[in-house]
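Hello Y.,

Per our agreement to keep a running log of every chain we model this quarter, I'm adding this entry. I've kept the format consistent with earlier entries: sequence first, then predicted structure.
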Amino acid sequence: MDSVLAALGALVPPVGVGLVFWLVLRSIIRADRAERAAIARLDAEEAGLVPPASGEAGNRTGAGPGAATAPERRADS
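Predicted structure for the entry above:
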């Protein structure tokens, strides 16, 4: 019986490290998947393929932050 407990005790650390490794890789892969989906969604919005996700359809001017815009011309000048 002692040899069985010794064998199980020897297997616990590698199994624990393997579990931690698997959880870390799983979280990295899920984060990468979510980031790629967000980038694809933003690229599609910029290309005009889909409407903005957060109801900003009326607020968009097409110019990004800090973008230079042409001065407005008056009709009488």
